[in-house]
Amino acid sequence: VQEKLKINKISLDIIDETNEAYVSCHPSMLSQGILNLINNSCDAILALDTKWIKLHITREADGVVKLAVIDSGLGITENKLDKLFTPFFTTKQNIGGTGLGLSLTKKIVENCGGTLQYIKESKNTCFVMTLLEVTTNSAASSHAKSIYFNNENYDELAEKLFNNKKILMIEDEIELAEMYAVRFSEWGAEVKCVAEFDEALTYIMDLSNSIDLVITDICIINGTGIDLLRELKVLRPRLPAVVMTGSVAPNLELLFDLGAANVLEKPFVFEKLVIASLNALLPSQYKWKRSVPRAHYKNKILIEFNNKNYNVSIDNIGLGGMFIATEGEDFKVGDEISFDFNVEVEANRFVKITGRAVIRWIRFKQKEQLPPGIGVEFSFISKKSRRAILNIVNSKKSSTYIPISA
Questions:
Q1: Cα gap 66→128, rounded to integer Å
Q2: What is the pLDDT of residues 186-243, one digit of tens each?
Q3: What is the pTM of this model?
Q4: 3-state SS of the chain?
Q5: In-domain check, residue 289
Q6: Residues 47-76: what's their mean pLDDT?
Q7: In 10 A of CB 111, how many CB atoms?
């Protein structure tokens, strides 16, 4: 961004009226959000005679800090305001742009418990971040280094699984990749960031390079993430990969068939990347596969998909997923469902298990004695629910093997 400001002779003034303020947000994530707004301003005012950007920080009486990014532009036209924060909507037709900057920045700020607003009453183009102020730097840092998702804290698991792990990240947005690398390094991971297909392939082919996880975008310089997955399947078939994509309708079935452990559709908050990476790195005994031991288990389950509810039945279950007996016409591989069901843990005492799962395979019709249904892998499930499922599996050890033909 500094280089862009210098080359295009754009002035940047920082006006901090707080003297010193701490907010509840991770520094690198907040920096990325601010950089996104400044970068957008740069692109918007390139053709103007007067080119300036101001970063104005104020403390409000209600315990919040406001950070405004204002530029010399005259605002955004009324007909574009409704779609301003919509993913893939861009006003940069002449200079390119993914349309992810504002929507991603909004997610970053909301993930910090704040808001991002466009101030249409302003004489110049103005976006304002509103963030909760905390009293000390240590309080801000403590919250910043924690990873929360659906009110679950994943710090302990992240420290165990990421410590000393070697991650290869292929992302053509270098600043974004470096921001992710900083976050992963806080749990002890070593991250190698590359932007080009050829560089990534050379690194993978050199077997002296230890790699535990690959994180790749679909769009990379001089190639695609799909090409990389094909090479990975041959060169390092056991290496887990997480795929990031900005495609409106990615071919999920192809990506999973090529070995992707998880696919994340942009824009997403960093926490989703962490959860996807944790799932990819989990030891094999915690993963669900069609051929590994799990429990025969019959129970009613409510699943929600596309705003419709389905009252169906679980046929078997494991720590990583389950088979749900249902007609499969409404579903396709890669769809994500929400679910809940009750498990009796003691006489007349029930635990409600809720979560989300991704459909990995579908049996559309009866096959011998096997019912039609969907095989799903948990994408999110609470620790409490996971413990309850573990108890189910442990209590039915005599009948846990489901053959690969299932």
A1: 7
A2: 889 999 999 999 999 999 999 999 999 999 999 889 999 999 999 999 999 889 999 9
A3: 0.51
A4: CHHHHHHCCCEEEEEECCCCCEECCCHHHHHHHHHHHHHHHHHHHCCCCCCEEEEEEEECCCCEEEEEEEECCCCCCHHHHHHCCCCCCCCCCCCCCCCCHHHHHHHHHHHCCCEEEECCCCCCEEEEEEEEEECCHHHHHHHHCCCEECCEECHHHHHHHHCCCEEEEECCCHHHHHHHHHHHHCCCCEEEEECEHHHHHHHHHCCCCCCCEEEEECEEECEEHHHHHHHHHHHCCCCCEEEEECCCCCCHHHHHHCCEEEEEECCCCHHHHHHHHHHHHCCHHHCCCCCCCCEEEEEEEEEEECCEEEEEEEEEECCCEEEEECCCCCCCCCCEEEEEEEEEEECCEEEEEEEEEEEEEEECCCECCECCEEEEEEEEECHHHHHHHHHHHHHCHHHCCCCCCC
A5: no
A6: 90
A7: 18
Domain annotation covers residue 54: yes
The alpha carbon dihedral of 215, 220, 222, 225 has a sign of: positive
Q: Does 250 share its domain with 211?
A: yes
Do both 124 and 9 map to the same domain?
Answer: yes
CB atoms within 10 A of CB 352: 11
Asked, for residue 133, whether it belongs to a domain, the answer is yes
- 18 and 75 together in one domain: yes
Q: Which domain holds residue 318?
A: 295-399
Task: Specify if 16 maps to a domain.
Answer: yes
Number of domains comprising the chain: 3
Is the domain of 353 the same as that of 254? Answer: no
Contacts 24+ apart (CB under 8 A), 397-402: 399/295, 399/296, 400/293, 400/294, 400/295, 400/296, 401/293, 402/290, 402/291, 402/293, 402/294, 402/296, 402/316, 402/323
Residue with tokens 């701490």: 22
Span 291-332, pLDDT tens digits: 344 677 888 999 998 888 999 999 888 877 888 998 767 888
Instruction: Report long-range pairs for 262-265 (Cβ below 8 Å, ≥24 apart).
Output: 262/379, 263/334
